[in-house]
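Quick start: read one record
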Amino acid sequence: MRLRFVTTTLLLFGLLLLLAWPWAVGSRPRLSMQEIRAEGYTEAQQAQVLERRNQVYFVRFSTYVLLLFLSFAGAAVGASLMMRRVRGEFRETTRTNLTELIEGTLHDHHKKREGESQEREE
């Protein structure tokens, strides 16, 4: 039951992350050097500002993709484990049903033979 909860939670978390793309990651920094100059940075700082904004975006985007991958991979592993468990239960149920069928058939044959032997004696 816990496995089903964890798998469902990871899947929903991944779907929410997908839908939250614009808010979680934001837009890519598209500032040109002219816009950075307008903010009042010196010439030496302008390239550093642009590079730093790109680095921050890269870290944010990488974290988002990593979380997305981990949530869907976790959901896939959980689903695989649930399928393995259900398959084992199915095998056990099938084995039990087959055993009951064989025992029931043998019991019916035994009754039939007893009935035939009693008819012959009469």
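The chain has a mean pLDDT of 87.
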